[in-house]
Design a protein that fits this description.
The complex is a heterodimer of chains A (603) and B (315).
Chain A (H helix, E strand, L loop, with lengths): L6 E12 L2 E13 L4 E5 L6 H8 L8 E9 L2 E2 L5 H7 L4 E4 L13 H12 L4 H14 L5 H4 L9 H13 L5 E5 L7 H18 L2 E6 L2 H7 L2 E6 L2 E7 H7 L3 H9 L17 E2 L6 E2 L16 E14 L4 E16 L4 E5 L6 H8 L7 E6 L2 E2 L5 H7 L3 E4 L13 H11 L5 H14 L16 H13 L5 E5 L7 H18 L2 E6 L2 H7 L2 E6 L2 E7 H6 L4 H9 L23 E3 L9 E5 L2 E4 L2
Parallel strand pairs in A: 3-8, 3-9, 6-7, 7-8, 15-20, 15-21, 18-19, 19-20
Antiparallel strand pairs in A: 1-2, 1-4, 4-5, 9-10, 11-12, 13-14, 13-16, 14-23, 16-17, 21-22, 22-25, 24-25
Helix pairs in contact in A: 3-4, 3-6, 4-6, 6-7, 7-19, 10-16, 13-14, 13-15, 14-15
Chain B lengths: L1 H28 L4 H6 L5 H10 L6 H13 L13 H36 L4 H15 L2 H15 L15 H35 L2 H8 L4 H38 L5 H10 L3 H29 L8
Enzyme class (chain A): translocase
Keywords (chain A): ATP-binding, Cell inner membrane, Cell membrane, Hydrolase, Membrane, Nucleotide-binding, Repeat, Translocase, Transport
EC number (chain A): 7.4.2.10
Chain lengths: 603, 315
C-alpha cells in the first residue's frame, strides 16, 4: 500500500519488574495501522493486549516497566521521546478511551471542564473558544441538549453517555490515532451497538485511524479491517480480518473462533448443545454434542413463581422520606421444570438478578408466591430457610470475590455439607473430592487456596460448592459473563454435563444472548421488571415478537465478517429507569399467545 | 445552601438535647450532696432545708432538669463554686484563648501533614516516602509534654527566642500573642500532623491509581496538574472529615499543653474545675465542647458538599 502507516510497531517487548526480576508480558509484537484504518488486537485476559496499548502511549509506571523495540507514530519514535515530549503526544496526536466509563472521568469536575482541558492544553485555545468547541464536540458524539449539559458532572450521566463524553474528549484535539481499549465491554448490548456505530461514523468524519483492543470476536468482525491475535504475550497471527476469520492458521485463532458463541448457530437444533472444543496444541475440533431430553415436563414444576413483586424504597432528603420506589420486579410469573434451563435475559436494571435473589430470599420480595420443591419460600421461618437452601443454590458472577480467600477450596466446598449436618467430617471431605472431580478439577487441589487458581477454575470451584448439597435448582447469576470466551465455553459445557448427569434445573440469568441461545430450553426476556416475552428457545430466537426482543437481538455483535461496516441506526435511546413515584400503579398487562408456550406482552 | 445549613442546624437540636440530659445527670450521678458541700461546717437542718428549697432540690428530677435547661437557654449556666463568677463569663474569658491555640495548631497540622502526605504518595517507596513516614512516626510517638519541655529548653531557655510561658490576648498585643502561642500550637499540631500525613498519603495513593487519573495522563496533562488538580481535590474529601474528628483530640491535647506552657485557656479551666468539684463549670465546659464538636462537624459536612458535586444534587 502506498500510504505510510500512522502507527508502526516493531518488535515491541514490554517487561515488568516483579520481585527484582524483569518478566516480559508482551513479546516481539509488530503491526502497522494505516491512515483511516481500523486494526483490532484481540485476545483473552493475560494476552498482553492492554499492556500493548498502554505501552504505545507510554502510560505504564516508568520505574516498574521496560518497553523495547520501536513505536513509530507519524514516523517519530515514541520510545526515543522525553517524558515531556511524550505529554505533547498523548491526547494530541494519539488519544485513548478506556473500558470503564463509570470510573474514567474525574467525579469532581464538570465534563465540560474535562474536555476543555485538552483544548487549552494542546491547542492553546482561550476559555471561550474551548467552551464553544467542547459544545460542538458534545453535539458530535450525539449528547442530547449538549449546551445545557456542559456544566454537568459525570455522575449525572449514564454509562453509555459517559463513554460518549470520553470519546468527545479523545477526539478534541483531532488525533490521527485513537486507541480504544475495550470501550464497549462494560456497556449493555444495545448501548454497545450505539457506541460502535458512533466510533465508525466519527472515524470516517475525522479520517482517523483506530486501534481497537477487545476480547469480543463479534466486535472485531464488525469493526476491524485487520486483526492481530494475541495469546500469552505473543502475537500469534495477524492479517486482514476476513482471512483471520475464514482461514485462520494458528490453532489458537481457530480455538478462539470456535468458542465464540454465535447468535443464530442453533437454528434447526432442538436441544441445548455443547460448545465445540478445539485442542489448542493441534487445532483439531471436536464436534459439539446435544444434551437431549432432560426436561421433565408435565410433572409439577420444581420452581413456580407467581406474581412476584419486588420494590425497593427510594429515600431522599434529610428526613429520609420515601420519594419513590425502584420497581425492580413487577408481577412476574414463570415455571421451571426438573432438568430444564430457563434463561432470564435483559439489560442492566431489568430485574433479572433481583428475581434470582428473591428465589433464595437473599432479598425480600414485596409480594407474590414462590413454590420450590414443596417449600412455600416467602412464608418460611429461619430454620425453614436453611432447609430450603438445600434445594436451591446460587452461582455468582465474580469468581474472584465470591470465594473466601482465607479458606482452602476443599473446606469451601465441604462447608455447606458440614453446616447442614449431612454427615461426618470425613464424608464431607470425600464429597468435596468427588465434586472437584465432577467439575473437572483434581481432588489433589483440595488444600490449595483460591488465589492459586485461574478465573475459570475458581468458577468451577464455585459450582462445586453449589453442588455440595445436591440441590435440585441452581440459580446461575451471570455465572459465565466474567470469563474469557474459551473458558466460558468450557464452563457452559460443564453446566450442560452436570444437568444431564444430575438432572438439575437451571435458572440462567444472563445478558449474553449468544450463550443463552446455546444453553437454554426456554427463554424469558425481561424489561423494566416485567417479562415481555417468554417461550421455547427456538421460538424466541427464530420468531421474536416484541420490539424490545428484536432490538436486543439486532444489537448483538456476530462474529461474521460479512457484517463489517454494518450500521444500526444511531439512536440516543437510554435504558429506562425502573424508579417510579410513590403510589404508582403498574398497568395490568395482557399477553398474546404466539405458539405453544410462546407468549408476548401486547399492552 | 442556606437551606441545607438550616436543616443541618435543626437536626443538631435533638443531639444537643440528648447531650444536655447527659450533662445534667452528671451532677445527679456524682457521689456526695452538693448542699452539704456548699453548707460547709454548717449543719443546721433549717439552713439545709432553706438551701434545698432555694436550689429547687426538692422538685422532681424532671422539673429540676427543665429548670436547669431553661437557665441554659437564657444564658444562665450557674455560678462557679470556687470563684463565684458566672460560668458563662468564665468560659467567655477562656474560650477565645483555646480557640486561637487550636486554630494555630490545626494550621501547623495541615501545613505539615498535607504536603508531606502528598510527597510521600507521589514518591511512594522512595527515600522521600520513608523520610515522611519516619517524621510521622516521631510525631505520633513523642509525647506532647516531652516535646513541649524540650522546645522550652531549646527555644526559650537556650536561644531565648520565644517566651517559655504565659499568654497575651491577640486583641491587646497581636505580636506578643502569636509569640506566646507559637510553641504550644506547634507542639499540639505535631501529633495531628502525623495522622493527617498518613491519611493524606493513603487517600492520595488510592486516588492516584484511579481510572480517571489514567485518563488525565492519557490527555497529556502535566504531572503538577494531575497531582494538584485532578488527584488532590479528590483525596481531600476524607481528610476534611478526619480533621473535624481530630478537633476532639485537639481539645484533649490542649488540656496538657496549656498546663505545660501555663496558658490560661479552656483546658486549664477544665482541669481546675474537675479538681475542685466545680460542677457548674464542668457542666458548662462539657456543653460548650459538645456544641463546638457539632459545629466542627457541620463545617466539615458543608466543605464536603462544596468539594463533592455528587452530594450537591438535593440542595
Amino acid at each position: 500500500m502506498a500510504d505510510l502507516p500512522i502507527l508502526s510497531v516493531r518488535n515491541l517487548t514490554t517487561s515488568f519488574l516483579s520481585g527484582g526480576v524483569w518478566k516480559s508480558v508482551v513479546r516481539d509484537v509488530s503491526f502497522d495501522v494505516r491512515p483511516g484504518e481500523t486494526v483490532a488486537i484481540v485476545g483473552e485476559s493475560g494476552s498482553g493486549k492492554s499492556v500493548t496499548s498502554l505501552s504505545i502511549m507510554r502510560l505504564l509506571a516508568p520505574g516498574f516497566s521496560r518497553i523495547e523495540g520501536s513505536i513509530l507514530l507519524n514516523d517519530r519514535d515514541l520510545l526515543a521521546l522525553s517524558e515531556k515530549e511524550m505529554r505533547g503526544v498523548r491526547g494530541n496526536e494519539a488519544s485513548m478511551i478506556f473500558q470503564e466509563p463509570m470510573t474514567s472521568l474525574n467525579p469532581i469536575f464538570t465534563i465540560g471542564r474535562q474536555i476543555c482541558e485538552v483544548l487549552t492544553r494542546h491547542k492553546g485555545m482561550s476559555r471561550q473558544e474551548a467552551r464553544a468547541e467542547t459544545i460542538r464536540l458534545l453535539e458530535k458524539v450525539r449528547i442530547p441538549n449538549a449546551g445545557a449539559r456542559f456544566n454537568d458532572y459525570p455522575h449525572q450521566f449514564s454509562g453509555g453517555m459517559r463513554q460518549r463524553v470520553m470519546i468527545a474528549m479523545a477526539l478534541a484535539s483531532r488525533p490521527r490515532l485513537l486507541i480504544a481499549d475495550e470501550p464497549t465491554t462494560a456497556l449493555d448490548v444495545t448501548i454497545q451497538g450505539q457506541i460502535l456505530d458512533l466510533i465508525k461514523v466519527l472515524q470516517e468524519e475525522e479520517d482517523m485511524s483506530v486501534l481497537f483492543i477487545t476480547h469480543d470476536m463479534g466486535v472485531v468482525a464488525e469493526i476491524a479491517d485487520r486483526t492481530v491475535v494475541m495469546y500469552r504475550g505473543q502475537q500469534v497471527e495477524a492479517g486482514p480480518t476476513d482471512e483471520i476469520f475464514q482461514r485462520g492458521q494458528h490453532p489458537y485463532t481457530r480455538a478462539l473462533l470456535a468458542a465464540v458463541p454465535r447468535l443464530g448457530s442453533m437454528q434447526g437444533r432442538k436441544w441445548p448443545t455443547r460448545f465445540p472444543v478445539v485442542d489448542i496444541a493441534t487445532g483439531e475440533t471436536m464436534e459439539p454434542s446435544e444434551v437431549a431430553g432432560t426436561v421433565a415436563r408435565g410433572m409439577t414444576p420444581i420452581l413456580a413463581v407467581k406474581n412476584l413483586v419486588a420494590r425497593f424504597p427510594v429515600r431522599s432528603g434529610i428526613l429520609g422520606r420515601q420519594t419513590g420506589s425502584v420497581h425492580a420486579v413487577e408481577n412476574l410469573s414463570f415455571d421451571l421444570f426438573q432438568g430444564e434451563t430457563l434463561s432470564l435475559v435483559g439489560e442492566s436494571g431489568c430485574g433479572k438478578s433481583t428475581t434470582g435473589r428473591s428465589i433464595l430470599r437473599l432479598v425480600e420480595p414485596t409480594d407474590g408466591e414462590i413454590h420450590l420443591d414443596g417449600y412455600d419460600i416467602l412464608r418460611l421461618d429461619q430454620p425453614g430457610l436453611r432447609r430450603m437452601r438445600k434445594s436451591v443454590q446460587m452461582i455468582f458472577q465474580d469468581p474472584f470475590s465470591s470465594l473466601n480467600p482465607r479458606m482452602k477450596v476443599g473446606s469451601t466446598i465441604a462447608e455447606p455439607f458440614v453446616k447442614h449436618k449431612l454427615g461426618t467430617a470425613g464424608q464431607a471431605r470425600e464429597k468435596a473430592c468427588d465434586l472437584l472431580e465432577q467439575v473437572g478439577l483434581s481432588s489433589t487441589m483440595m488444600d490449595r487456596y483460591p488465589h492459586e487458581f485461574s478465573g475459570g477454575q475458581r468458577q468451577r470451584i464455585a459450582i462445586a460448592r453449589a453442588l455440595s448439597l445436591d440441590p435440585k435448582v441452581i440459580v446461575a447469576d451471570e455465572s459465565v459473563s466474567a470469563l474469557d470466551v474459551s473458558i466460558k465455553a468450557q464452563v457452559c459445557n460443564l453446566l450442560l454435563d452436570l444437568q444431564q448427569r444430575l438432572n438439575l434445573a437451571f435458572l440462567f440469568i444472563s445478558h449474553d444472548m449468544a450463550v443463552v441461545e446455546r444453553v437454554s430450553h426456554r427463554v424469558a426476556v425481561m424489561y423494566l421488571g416485567e417479562i415481555i416475552e417468554i417461550g421455547p428457545r427456538a421460538a424466541i430466537f427464530d420468531n421474536p415478537q416484541h420490539d424490545y426482543t428484536k432490538k436486543l437481538m439486532a444489537a448483538v455483535p456476530v462474529p461474521d465478517t460479512a457484517r463489517r461496516g454494518i450500521r444500526r441506526n444511531i439512536s440516543n435511546d437510554e435504558l429506562r429507569s425502573p424508579v417510579r413515584p410513590v403510589g404508582y400503579q403498574p398497568p395490568a398487562r395482557t399477553y398474546r399467545h404466539v405458539s405453544e408456550g410462546h407468549l408476548v406482552q401486547i399492552a | 445552601m442556606p437551606v441545607y445549613i438550616a436543616k443541618r442546624l435543626l437536626v443538631a437540636i435533638p443531639t444537643l438535647l440528648i447531650i444536655s440530659i447527659f450533662v445534667f445527670s452528671l451532677q445527679k450521678l456524682l457521689p456526695g450532696d452538693p448542699i452539704l458541700a456548699m453548707a460547709g461546717e454548717e449543719r443546721d437542718p433549717a439552713t439545709l432545708a432553706f438551701l434545698r428549697e432555694k436550689y429547687r432540690l426538692n422538685d422532681p428530677v424532671i422539673m429540676q432538669y427543665f429548670h436547669w435547661l431553661g437557665g441554659i437557654l437564657t444564658g444562665d449556666f450557674g455560678i462557679s463554686l470556687r470563684t463565684n463568677q458566672p460560668v458563662l463569663e468564665l468560659i467567655g474569658q477562656k474560650l477565645p484563648v483555646t480557640i486561637q491555640l487550636a486554630m494555630m495548631a490545626m494550621f501547623f497540622a495541615l501545613a505539615i501533614g498535607i504536603p508531606m502526605g502528598i510527597l510521600a504518595a507521589v514518591w511512594k517507596n522512595t527515600a522521600i516516602d520513608y523520610f515522611a513516614n519516619f517524621v510521622a512516626l516521631c510525631g505520633l510517638s513523642l509525647p506532647n509534654f516531652w516535646l513541649g519541655i524540650m522546645l522550652i529548653l531549646l527555644v526559650s531557655v537556650n536561644l531565648g527566642w520565644l517566651p517559655a510561658s504565659g499568654y497575651e490576648s491577640i486583641f491587646v498585643d497581636p505580636v506578643r500573642s502569636i509569640k506566646t502561642t507559637l510553641m504550644p500550637a506547634f507542639v499540639l499540631g505535631t501529633g495531628l500532623a502525623a495522622q493527617i500525613m498518613r491519611h493524606t498519603r493513603s487517600s492520595m495513593l488510592g486516588v492516584l491509581s484511579a481510572d480517571y487519573i489514567r485518563t488525565a495522563r492519557a490527555k497529556g496533562l502535566s504531572p503538577w496538574t494531575i497531582v494538584m488538580s485532578h488527584s488532590f481535590r479528590n483525596a481531600l474529601l476524607p481528610i476534611v472529615t478526619m480533621s473535624a474528628l481530630l478537633f476532639g483530640e485537639l481539645l484533649a491535647g490542649a488540656v496538657l499543653t496549656e498546663q505545660i506552657f501555663t496558658i490560661p485557656g479552656f483546658g486549664k479551666l477544665i482541669v481546675d474545675a474537675v479538681f475542685n468539684r466545680d460542677y457548674a463549670v464542668v457542666q458548662g465546659v462539657v456543653l460548650c465542647t459538645a456544641i463546638g464538636f457539632i459545629l466542627m462537624n457541620l463545617v466539615a459536612d458543608i466543605l464536603y458538599v462544596l468539594l463533592n458535586p455528587r452530594l450537591r444534587v438535593n440542595l
